[in-house]
Amino acid sequence: MQEITERLSYLHGLAEGLDIYEGKKEGRFFQELMVFITELNDELTHTKARLTELEEYVEAVDEDLNDLELDYYEEVDFDEYDDDDFLTDDELDLDFDDEYIDEIVCPHCHETVVLDSELEDNEIAEIVCPNCQEVFVVDNE
């Protein structure tokens, strides 16, 4: 940042030394351009200072959070446990057989369509393919 400020000061001094600001239309343009660039540099310097403050703040919060985690949460070492220590699907009472799922191939686009309900015997159903949006009939005989 210091290098940009120094280069900007050099350009400003060079422009004044060459008298490009005096009584010329181009001089007025360059003078306004230098003012604009100086304001941009000031905003950039301010933004960089705020960013540095925020980085320090986030680092402090991260350190505090790490201290809290160490104080209040036990570190679990999963290597101490056997597979028998964890519940299986049956023990969790997860029953995936309640919903009957059937797959049918769409005759139009030949993509697989998954049905989430069982068709009764001799039932005819109209299915809308989610891929091609075509309607086709399924006869469960």
Overview of this protein structure:
With 141 residues, the chain is of the alpha+beta class. It has two domains: 2-72; 102-140, no CATH class. Helix content is 45%, strand content 14%. Helix 1 packs antiparallel against helix 2 (25-72). The longest helix has 48 residues, at 25-72. The protein is elongated, with a radius of gyration of 36 Å.
- Beta-strand content: 5-15%
The description of the largest β-sheet is: 2 strands, antiparallel
Number of helices: 2
N-to-C SSE string, H for helix and E for strand: HHEEEE
Brief sketch in words of this structure:
With 141 residues, this protein is α+β, with helices and mostly antiparallel strands. 45% of the residues lie in helices and 14% in strands. Strands 1-2 form a two-stranded antiparallel ribbon.
Features of this protein?
141 residues; 2 domains; two-stranded antiparallel ribbon
What is the topological layout?
Layout: H1 2-17, H2 25-72, E1 102-105, E2 112-115, E3 123-128, E4 135-140
Antiparallel strand pairs: 1-2, 3-4
